[in-house]
């Protein structure tokens, strides 16, 4: 069974789908690995690293020749349509796909009879945790956000006693306590900040406290379907803002990570609240990829609003390309272990993890929002 590892083509994408340290594990599954030359370079994983060790890969320059020869194609982002068109009928594609955001891709998968697994569709259930790339990547984004905040803050994070007096610890408020938010709280605390967390799912209170943060209680319970948050009503939004304004204004760094599945990111911080922050305050808006959590956020850019610098970087995991690639590659390996047996493809369409992640199969494409397959 041959797998192809593509070099990513998007400007801000530095990750690579397979790291050299996993080659022996893939060999154990009976898989032969072919890597596009230069695939790991932007994650500082040189071609040579893929040629060493007991199970070296083969390097191939041309992406079309690479995929034409492969049974399984692995990538981080959806490959270009030409590359998909060069795949063998019945071959498997695994990457983040976001089918409804890539014009032409569903048709190309259908016409090419490609079997496609979308990493963003891995079910959020305990058994699938080791395949959950959204979580592995969100954890790294969450880690990175306080570092970005600290770098842009004209003050320090920890309390510091000097010969001429003491400097106070910074206050960091994290809004949205999913995988990224909890890591952000933990990192901010390790940097010496005093931390507070806010979410609309009540179970996050204990989770915030377990990483040393105070929970900001707005009295709202907006737990929705599947344990995710639902959208807040207008009344709930007003109630939350009333409690939160004071906390936002006392914070040195605010990190926002809130998402509601399938929707534009919720607006958590208003322009008036940003304008009322302390001079030199910093907001790191981690929801840039889904529109941002703050009024005035410009996704992909850093802007100043009143006294506050608002950062909204795209694709934060890619800034930590080596570790992000390592975790993503492990997620892929765990998916491959489910669909490959004795060196051959073995799809169990009764398996809820396989079925949940599968978005195209044998000439049919699943509506990304639909739960059943095929439709
Ligand atoms: P996410 O990225 O979808 O959202 C981030 C956070 O924003 C969530 O905690 C959400 O409650 C919060 N949020 C949404 N609207 C908000 C608002 N208006 N105000 C404040 N906060 C708001 O979340 P995620 O990190 O992908 O995880 C969401 C849930 O899924 C969590 O309960 C997490 O523990 C769970 N999860 C389970 C598994 C698993 O069992 N395999 C894996 C990953 C995540």
Automatic annotation (TrEMBL):
Record-linked Pfam families: AlaDh_PNT_C (PF01262), AlaDh_PNT_N (PF05222)
Catalytic activity, as annotated: NAD(+) + NADPH + H(+)(in) = NADH + NADP(+) + H(+)(out)
The keyword Transit peptide is annotated on this UniProt entry: no
Domain Alanine dehydrogenase/pyridine nucleotide transhydrogenase NAD(H)-binding intervals: 150-312
One of the GO biological process terms: NADPH regeneration
Keywords for the protein's UniProt record, in alphabetical order: NAD, NADP, Nucleotide-binding, Translocase
Top-level EC class as recorded in UniProt: translocase
GO MF terms held by the record: NADP binding; proton-translocating NAD(P)+ transhydrogenase activity
Domain of life of the native organism: Bacteria
InterPro entries xrefs: AlaDH/PNT_N, AlaDH/PNT_NAD(H)-bd, NAD(P)-bd_dom_sf
E.C. number: 7.1.1.1
Keyword Nucleotidyltransferase tagged: no
Domain Alanine dehydrogenase/pyridine nucleotide transhydrogenase N-terminal stretches: 4-141
GO cellular component: plasma membrane
Coiled-coil segments: none
Function recorded in the entry: The transhydrogenation between NADH and NADP is coupled to respiration and ATP hydrolysis and functions as a proton pump across the membrane.
Record-given protein name: proton-translocating NAD(P)(+) transhydrogenase
Organism: Halotalea alkalilenta
